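Exercise 7b. Backbone tokens:
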């Protein structure tokens, strides 16, 4: 059996490990546009912060490809999948045959139309290691650059975290009325914004750049004018679905897959940020661009590609982030009955619906986030546990004895 994996991030590595858990002998070819060894993309802000190195960012040990007998084609781009000939076509016309192929192509930066953007030379996105290197080069080491970041979502704020100490000033603008609108509720957003403002970040919300009149001057829709030296466009991402669309895979914003990570085209699988998952917390189908889901979905793809039989059916949004000393974990849906605790330096919100925990926000004190996460993932009926105790002091003792024994027996 010959497997081709397109991509080299979390979902792709999950796919490789899924294949090898079933088939130790089949040929695996991994093809990625990026030239780098597999690395943790969320760590690029810490690279700029000086809290990590490229070597420490490796997502797997340096002998990973060798140990798993993976042939890598890094710095190469798949331009087409030929489902009839069962091969993939590279940028130079070279072809690589497959019996099964996994599309783990992730997403790309979304750049909205802004007049004059093409005149701004000192600009970058912030999604890859190369983006981080470019940004470091643009900033230099004099701390004399005014930086404008367009986008106050996770990518924009992680970028801001990484370069605050490298910048003379840091301004963030976003169309949304609050920061991290897809991750936090209104109070959580204001809590985090106040913390970041105290560290020196400046925010302009409910506004957007209308045009760039010079390579270093932006005019906003509100009339606000901003001068900057370096521009970061971090508005959002779009899933890379083109390869799948061109061969007739069902696509609705992301690639549609079943619980086996199969697309609608035979022998073609997909996993990660380029796909649509079923969100069990909100009971809707949507793109969930987060690492745990990407890995699990990739692993399931690999197992099933290799002849195993397993499913991925427990997807839900989850983010664990830190912003310059303030830690935060969020998960699930915020639609339901809320239990809220506010104190100096911390915020906790638990959301319950239909006798189940469906979501939570923890800012500041995040020590027991894993307990809440497992309640959502396992869809534990709350009347089978001591939820009053878990709300205030989450710990295993709040679970019924049988459930506690089961949890303690699980491998970690």
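Sequence design result:
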């Amino acid at each position: 059996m010959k497997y081709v994996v397109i991509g080299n991030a979390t979902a792709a590595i999950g796919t490789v490990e899924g294949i090898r858990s079933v088939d130790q002998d089949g040929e695996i070819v991994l093809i990625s546009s990026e030239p780098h060894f597999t690395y943790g993309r969320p760590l690029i802000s810490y690279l700029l912060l000086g809290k990590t190195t490229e070597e420490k960012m490796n997502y797997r040990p340096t002998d990973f490809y060798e140990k798993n007998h993976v042939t890598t084609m890094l710095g190469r781009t798949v331009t087409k999948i030929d489902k009839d000939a069962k091969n993939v076509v590279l940028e130079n016309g070279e072809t690589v045959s497959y019996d099964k192929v996994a599309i783990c192509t992730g997403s790309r930066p979304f750049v909205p139309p802004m007049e004059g953007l093409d005149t701004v030379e000192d600009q970058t996105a912030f999604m890859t290691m190369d983006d981080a290197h470019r940004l470091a080069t643009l900033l230099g080491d004099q701390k004399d650059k005014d930086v404008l970041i367009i986008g106050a979502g996770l990518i924009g704020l992680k970028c801001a975290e990484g370069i605050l100490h490298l910048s003379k000033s840091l301004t963030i603008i976003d169309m949304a009325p609050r920061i991290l609108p897809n991750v936090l509720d209104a109070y959580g957003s204001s809590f985090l914004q106040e913390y970041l403002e105290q560290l020196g970040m400046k925010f302009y919300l409910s506004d957007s750049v209308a045009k760039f009149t010079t390579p270093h001057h932006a005019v906003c829709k509100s009339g606000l004018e901003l001068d900057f030296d370096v521009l970061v466009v971090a508005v959002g991402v779009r899933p890379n679905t083109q390869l799948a669309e061109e061969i007739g895979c069902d696509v609705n914003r992301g690639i549609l897959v079943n619980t086996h990570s199969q697309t609608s085209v035979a022998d073609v699988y997909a996993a990660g940020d380029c796909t649509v998952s079923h969100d069990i917390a909100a009971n809707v189908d949507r793109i969930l661009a987060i690492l745990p889901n990407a890995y699990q979905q990739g692993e399931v793809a690999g197992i099933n590609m290799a002849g195993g039989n397993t499913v991925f059916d427990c997807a839900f949004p989850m983010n664990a982030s830190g912003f310059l000393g303030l830690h935060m974990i969020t998960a699930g849906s915020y639609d339901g009955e809320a239990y809220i605790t506010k104190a100096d330096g911390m915020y906790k919100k638990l959301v319950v619906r239909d006798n189940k925990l469906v979501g939570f926000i923890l800012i500041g004190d995040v020590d027991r986030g894993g307990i809440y996460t497992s309640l959502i993932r396992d869809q534990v009926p709350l009347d089978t546990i001591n939820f009053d105790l878990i709300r205030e002091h989450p710990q295993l003792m709040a679970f019924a004895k049988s459930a506690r024994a089961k949890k303690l027996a699980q491998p970690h």
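Instructor comment: DSSP finds eleven helices and 27 strands in the chain. Residues 291-305 form the longest helix (15 residues).
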